[in-house]
Design a protein that fits this description.
The complex is a heterodimer of chains A (398) and B (477).
Chain A (H helix, E strand, L loop, with lengths): L1 H39 L5 H14 L4 H14 L4 E2 L4 E3 L5 E3 L10 H15 L5 E6 L21 H13 L3 E4 L11 H4 L9 H19 L15 E10 L2 H6 L1 H4 L2 E8 L5 E6 L5 E6 L9 H4 L16 E6 L7 E6 L3 H8 L5 E6 L9 H7 L4 E5 L15
Parallel strand pairs in A: 4-5, 4-13, 11-12, 11-13
Antiparallel strand pairs in A: 1-2, 2-3, 6-7, 8-9, 8-10, 10-12
Chain B lengths: L5 H17 L4 H19 L4 H21 L2 H36 L14 H17 L7 H9 L1 H4 L7 H9 L5 H38 L8 H32 L17 H7 L2 H15 L7 H19 L3 H19 L2 H4 L3 H20 L3 H11 L10 H20 L3 H11 L3 H27 L12
Helix pairs in contact in B: 1-2, 2-6, 3-4, 3-5, 3-6, 4-5, 5-6, 9-10, 9-18, 9-20, 10-16, 10-17, 10-18, 12-13, 13-14, 14-16, 16-17
Classes of the chains: A alpha/beta (398), B mainly alpha (477).
Chain lengths: 398, 477
């Protein structure tokens, strides 16, 4: 009987030492944030304030990454092909995908296409050309193999449906699935294992395709020999095993592994004025070369991180890049998500101004309708990653 | 606040524990700390309804004091009836009014509107405890307490939200005088950790499987077919989920209560090894069964009635109330009556005595219980019916399911552990190991235990931090 209690006593001692010490560290670290959060919105309902504080406590837990990695490692030990309750699934090559247990209805796509058509009609008086571009999804039916029964979220039918309606309504489209991956850029060179984004080289190739298509479809006058469209005009630096995307961040690196990151740094530069409204909600203005404005080298600094964000910080609510050295060039607006950030960086030399608005953010001060009607753009490029095809992404001309 | 949350484990528990033992020179102060802690615990999840709980405390403690002070049986009875009426009215208003009005509207083709009030967390649990308090005082089994102590009994945070339902006379003495010892705290912390692991690693895994499959079944056969194999997996996952979810919460509650010197009654005794439905209900949610037995069944006459029809009536009332207690839906009422008929049949045929084959008895009990959980889990009797049709491939739904294979493959470790820990194997192993006379094996076990428990704690917190699925079934009962 003595030993029965002895083992419990030993554990209780360990419990109190670890949990109470850890609790002390957490309370000490999060105390100010908790008070700030509690006072942040004194007018809101008390239930909401409690929830907000609990959110701060959960997010601010000390050594969070270590816990996530422990969780990640356990899933490796269990040889699991899905993680976080089927939020992500892994194919036989180790690529992470989103999962879905059943298909949604595709009855809204016509409405989305209609909104794009209305947008096109609204700006036609300025001679603005509108094109809708869809980056490729990682999941390619017939090519990607999973273990039996893993329910992948296949957004290809949804993408097809949307593109079909856009085409029927006379909207120009680029379906990047037709171009990427290809003989030059293999699947592995197009996609990350740990992230949903395309790789930088794929984004570069997509940028060139976009310009070719703008010239071809709208009789544009873009110089396709411009250095910004030539791979040879870039320093290409490889950061092996250094990239962890948003999917890998959520699952933990032990489970997702790491990707190599290829950074393309222009060897040329124009002078830019760059204004952007980021997640901190304060507008920033920068003037200088591409290295001082559009490329955020901070994201390359850590050994491991989401290095995709090196271009324009990944994603902002709003961006405006004025090209001081090419003021006569056309002016473009990207209604976009994060896929467009490297594209906008690569293409900035070809435009006098490139603006960007994050289509998924419904902000009163950033209405797409106001932006397109208060500026005269030569081109409006609506870029939307297939998973983002939803009502929020078409928050205009409803 | 949930036990399986960061805020509870790293903020609430250490703070309350430290303050509680800092004031260990005064029992009254300790009780006040626990009362305030309990109100804060409740207010964290239900900031508005904490007022309702305080009201319930005031009504019941005043009622208890009045009954004792008047010391007149007839007047005391009137007060008791009034207090119980208020308790039940609160429960009715928040839990059943919408259901009753909806059914009246349907039956009478009327359109009576009632405000859709959210259900206060744990209302059924704390209402029953409050009733137990006044009844016990009326019966003279225990004395009335001051509002602080009565309040502590009703709102004691370890068992506030999901029981075990503590009868007042079983804990009254402990509120005034209880002893905290190192061994009690050690056993309590170990029990809490085991409960936490059961909840986060097992119950939540089964919950995800069950919810996914039941939700698919709800979408409708026209859109998503749920093949028989998947339907069976969903029902088994729910059978495991509800056991581990609820028993884990009871483990945590009993463990936490021990940390503060209280001994609560056990709530589960491996119900899935039962050999009959009567046996199952002696092992499942023991505190609820015991409550109904003591406060409903016995006062009605129980089994010691001259006319067997009265016994049938008494059993019927208890099962009807058991069903209604679980929720305002026909599914729960059906579920209660389902057990009434089965238990009655078992008694009629003297099942426990006449059937000798133990394996058959186990299979029969599990089958009946599993089927019962489908009614319990379904949103409507229609869905339950469709689900059962799915299980027997009567819905043009096929048998084989790739998704079922995938779910089993991905979660086989948890499923195996779930089945193992549904039986007393672990307890038996524990007994064998610590009673083993071989000293070296005993020493290894004594040393391995804290390490394994620490690993369990770290893994559980890792799952918690990673934002795993974390629902709680009995939260809304």
């Amino acid at each position: 009987m003595g030993r029965y209690f002895l083992k419990k006593r030993i554990f209780a001692l360990i419990f109190f030492l670890t949990v109470f010490t850890f609790a002390g560290i957490n309370i000490y670290n999060s105390y100010e944030s908790i008070i700030d959060e509690w006072n942040a919105d004194a007018d809101s309902r008390i239930d909401d304030r409690v929830k907000a504080v609990e959110g701060v406590i959960d997010e601010g837990i000390y050594a969070r990454d270590n816990f996530v990695e422990t969780f990640s490692y356990i899933n490796v030990l269990l040889a699991k092909d899905e993680i976080s309750d089927f939020t992500y699934i892994k194919d036989k090559e180790g690529y992470l995908f989103y999962s879905a247990f059943f298909r949604e209805n595709y009855d809204e796509e016509f409405q989305y296409a209609l909104r794009v058509k209305r947008l096109k009609a609204a700006v036609s008086k300025y001679g603005t050309k509108v094109i809708f571009v869809v980056p490729p999804d990682k999941y390619i039916p017939g090519k990607i193999e999973f273990s039996e029964g893993l329910p992948v979220n296949d957004v290809n039918p949804k993408t097809d449906e949307l593109l079909l309606w856009l085409n029927r309504l006379g909207i120009e489209t680029i379906d990047y699935r037709e171009y990427l991956p290809n003989e030059v850029l293999t699947y592995d060179e197009t996609f990350y294992k740990t992230d949903h984004h395309w790789r930088i080289t794929a984004a570069f190739m997509a940028s060139r395709i976009l310009m070719e298509e703008l010239n071809y479809r709208f009789e544009g006058d873009f110089n396709l020999q411009d250095p910004c469209l030539k791979m040879s005009s870039y320093n290409v630096t490889e950061y092996p095993d250094s990239m962890v995307g948003s999917m890998g961040k959520k699952t933990g690196i032990n489970y997702s592994g790491l990707d190599d990151f290829i950074f393309m740094e222009p060897r040329f530069s124009n002078e830019y004025e760059y204004t952007h409204l980021g997640e901190e909600d304060n507008e920033k203005y920068q003037r200088g070369s591409v290295y001082e404005t559009l490329i955020d080298y901070e994201h390359l600094e850590g050994e491991i991180g989401n290095k995709y964000n090196v271009y324009m910080g990944g994603l902002n609510y709003y961006d405006s890049v004025k090209n001081i050295d090419n003021t006569d060039a056309p002016k473009a607006l990207f209604i976009r998500d994060s896929y467009a950030s490297p594209m906008m960086t690569f293409l900035a030399p070809l435009f006098s101004q490139i603006d960007g608005v994050w289509c998924l953010e419904d902000r009163d001060d950033l209405s797409v309708e106001d932006i397109v009607e208060s500026n005269t753009y030569d081109y409006i490029i609506i870029e939307l990653y297939p998973y983002n095809i939803n009502d929020e992404a078409f928050n205009y001309y409803k | 606040m949930l036990f399986s949350s960061i805020v509870f484990i790293f903020y609430f528990l250490p703070t309350v524990f430290i303050i509680y033992y800092l004031v260990s020179f005064s029992r009254m102060l300790q009780n006040i700390v626990l009362l305030l802690g309990s109100l804060l615990f409740y207010a964290w999840g239900e900031p508005t309804y904490v007022v309702l709980m305080i009201f319930s405390i005031l009504v019941n403690s005043s009622g208890g004091l009045l009954i004792e002070k008047i010391n007149n049986r007839a007047t005391g009875k009137k007060i008791l009836v009034c207090v119980i009426f208020i308790d039940l009215m609160i429960l009715f208003l928040f839990k059943y009014l919408g259901f009753v009005v909806d059914n009246l509207n349907m039956a009478l083709n009327t359109q009576i509107n009632v405000m859709d009030l959210p259900l206060p967390i744990g209302i059924s649990f704390f209402t029953f405890q409050a009733i137990s308090y006044v009844v016990d005082v009326y019966r003279g089994v225990t004395k009335a307490e001051n509002p602080f102590y009565a309040g502590l009994y009703i709102s004691f945070f370890p068992q506030l939200i999901a029981g075990p339902i503590v009868k007042y006379h079983s804990i009254a003495e402990q509120i005034r005088s209880r002893k905290s010892t190192v061994d009690k705290i050690s056993v309590g912390i170990s029990r809490f950790t085991v409960g936490l692991g059961k909840k986060i690693l097992l119950a939540n895994t089964f919950a995800f499987m069950a919810d996914t499959i039941f939700n698919q079944s709800q979408i409708g056969i026209e859109k998503v077919a749920v093949p028989a194999m998947l339907a069976w997996l969903g029902s088994l996952a729910y059978t495991l989920q509800i056991y581990f979810d609820f028993s884990a919460y009871s483990d945590m509650a009993i463990g936490l209560a021990l940390c503060f010197g209280f001994r609560l009654e056990e709530n589960f005794n491996y119900p899935y090894i039962a050999t009959s439905i009567s046996d199952f209900w002696r092992r499942w949610h023991i505190s609820l069964t015991s409550f109904f037995r003591e406060y409903v069944y016995f006062p009605l006459g129980g089994s010691r009635v001259k006319n067997q029809d009265y016994m049938v009536r008494n059993i019927f009332i208890v099962w009807l109330l058991t069903g209604i207690w679980h929720g305002a839906n026909w599914t729960f009422i059906f579920w209660g009556l389902y057990y009434f008929f089965i238990q009655l049949a078992e008694r009629f045929f003297e099942f426990e005595e006449t059937v000798k084959n133990k394996l058959f008895k186990h299979i029969y009990t599990l089958f009946i219980v599993n089927l019962g959980w489908i009614f319990f889990r379904s949103d409507s009797l229609y869905q339950a019916g469709r689900y059962i049709m799915n299980m027997f491939a009567l819905n043009n739904n096929g048998i084989y399911s790739e998704l079922a294979v995938c779910m089993i493959k991905e979660n086989w470790v948890f499923l195996v552990l779930g089945i193992i820990f549904s039986t007393p194997i672990a307890i038996k192993m524990n007994d064998i190991l610590y009673k083993n006379r071989e000293k070296s094996l005993n020493t290894v076990y004594t040393l391995a235990y804290p390490i394994c428990m620490l690993l369990l704690l770290i893994i559980s917190i890792s799952y918690l931090v990673s934002g795993s699925y974390n629902p709680f079934i009995y939260f809304n009962f």
